[in-house]
Amino acid sequence: MSLSFLAKKTWHTQRTDNVEQVWLAEQKKEKEEKKLKELQKQIDEERQIEELRTLQKDAGLVTDPKQKLEWMYEGPGSAVASEAQAREYKLGKAYEPTKQSEEMSQLENKNVAGSTWLDNTSSNENELFSRLNQDPLYAMRQSQKRDREQKVLQNPLAMKRLRASLRDELTAYEQKRAVRKAAKKAKKAEKKRRKKEKKKRKRASPSSSPSRSRSRSRSQSPRRRSPSPRRRSRSPPHEKRDGYGLRKGRVDDSRGPRNLGPDRGAVAAREREAAERRRRPQREQLTDEEKARRLAEFARDGAAKHEAAQVRARRDG
């Protein structure tokens, strides 16, 4: 029986993909072994160098170097000389100022850009303000702005144009303000007039009942004086009892059929008001042109009054 069918299985060792996977795994293992050998070699070299440094230190040939990272966090103001220079200065060496120290002294006077960065600790309270005021470009822009302002102030023609523009703007603002004030005043007067007319129509309207008119007449009539306490004590007040419309033998006809209709006086007043309203000429509504013309007149009157007030104030002052 032939065994050729085995080449068709996925696990067969002679298949191309299986052979490729085996080759890739072998290559990966070789690379890892090579890296491990290089790392081991590097570690051995570093150990040998460290042993040599230890031997030199024990023999007194070299000093132990201090490897620290504090210099990364120190600003330019905290820079100090090296230990050798410090030892020389202690032994009596004269101080020699360098160019760098002179530049640092110029920055320490707090009058140039970047001077606030000399502090060891940066303040976060006014960081934005410091950036704006200590930025050289910002300082340059500010100086250019001051130069332009000085040129404008020293130029009489430019100042004259500036004053004229300011005067025109002020005049326009005053006119607008006067127009608004006049319109507001006219609106207020119109509202007051309408309120008066409404109140007048309400008084003359026949809707007021006779009982209300009688109560108004009673309220308008002078009050009677109350009897003295001595008189009240002598004669007690009589108790009024309802007699179903009968009082002292007379019939109360205030609710009779004669008084069910409207008051004759109110009807006559209403008719007179209607006749007067018909005889009164109808008021014509103003057009847009007339409104604009009247508003302009109000504005001119307001401006004239304002100028007169200013003249009086100058004269009094």
UniProtKB/TrEMBL annotation:
Pfam families: Cir_N (PF10197), CWC25 (PF12542). GO terms for cellular component: U2-type spliceosomal complex. One of its GO terms (biological process) is mRNA splicing, via spliceosome. Residues 178-204, 213-235 have a biased composition (Basic residues). Residues 10-46 form the CBF1-interacting co-repressor CIR N-terminal domain. The keyword Chaperone does not apply. Keywords: Coiled coil, mRNA processing, mRNA splicing, Nucleus, Spliceosome. It is found in: Nucleus. Residues 22-49 form a coiled coil. Residues 95-161, 176-317 are annotated as: Disordered. InterPro entries: CIR_N_dom, CWC25, CWC25_splicing_factor. It comes from the Eukaryota. Residues 236-256, 269-317 have a biased composition (Basic and acidic residues). Residues 103-133 have a biased composition (Polar residues). Belongs to the CWC25 family. This is CBF1-interacting co-repressor CIR N-terminal domain-containing protein. It comes from Pelagomonas calceolata.
